[in-house]
Design goal:
single chain, 250 residues, mainly beta, 2 helices, 13 strands
């Protein structure tokens, strides 16, 4: 437990230094996953920054699930890490094509037992918003190549959204993403019956309320997310994994 706390403190300190330097939208989330096959803590570091040539986004997930990976072990270290980093390129912001951007992305990670195959994605994205920019939606169509993995169609479709002050409640935010892609991979059900799956779907809608606004600390929010997935990872079929936690905006 002490090792976990030190790791979390070190990562949070790094995120604070990074956000101060680049003046980006950076946050850290600590979520407990109540999924029947999970029941562990995940630390997520997330950053989004716009500039004159487009925008940069990344997140890193650290799963503190070592005891889930190695039978009889104690949860004293990260059991897995996963990251995504993407770049949107837009040199035509003053034209009629201003809502369209080129998109390049890298995904990859590792767990205690196996690596997550590197993936590269290239394509386009389309950005939509209301007049206030409180509600935004980005749609992406991407060519996806996954190392040492076959797919019937090498494509991924993604939607990313953010809705602020929903239902007229100041500080109540609804955001998240949804991904669908083709990938031939091994999956197993709860009875260890295995098969090959060819498509993957995952969405993680989040709901956060800024409780800090009531105590003079606008950085603090409480809330959580629900992971809804089908054939994600090595899990066969549909899964619903609710999470609760806290978020700190730097």
């Amino acid at each position: 437990m002490k090792t976990n706390k030190l790791a979390i403190m070190a990562v949070l300190l790094f995120a604070m230094m990074f956000s101060a330097k680049v003046k980006a939208q950076t946050n850290a989330q600590i979520l407990y996953d109540f999924g029947s096959d999970r029941k562990y803590v995940t630390l997520t570091l997330e950053m989004f920054k716009q500039d004159n040539w487009g925008s940069t986004y990344f997140f890193v997930d650290h799963d503190f699930n070592y005891d889930k990976m190695v039978e009889g072990s104690k949860n004293v270290a990260q059991g897995g890490t996963y990251t995504e980093i993407s770049r949107a390129l837009n040199f035509w912001k003053n034209s009629s094509m201003k809502n369209w951007s080129l998109h390049v992305e890298y995904n990859g990670g590792i767990t205690k037992n196996y690596p997550i195959n590197n993936a590269w994605l290239f394509g386009v994205e389309y950005f939509m918003h209301d007049k206030s920019f409180k509600n935004v939606l980005t749609l992406e169509a991407l060519y996806k190549t996954i190392r040492e993995t076959d797919s019937n169609v090498p494509m991924q479709f993604t939607a990313v959204w953010t809705c602020n002050d929903i239902f007229g409640v100041k500080g109540l935010k609804f955001d998240g993403f949804a991904d669908f892609w083709w990938e031939t991979h091994f999956v197993a059900d709860d009875n260890a019956k295995s098969r090959d799956a060819h498509t993957v779907f995952i969405t993680e809608p989040q709901l956060w309320y800024n409780v800090g606004q009531h105590i003079g600390c606008d950085n603090l929010s409480i809330g959580g997310e629900v992971e809804l997935s089908n054939n994600f990872g090595s899990t066969d079929g549909f899964k619903c994994r609710p999470c609760l936690g806290v978020k700190w905006d730097f």
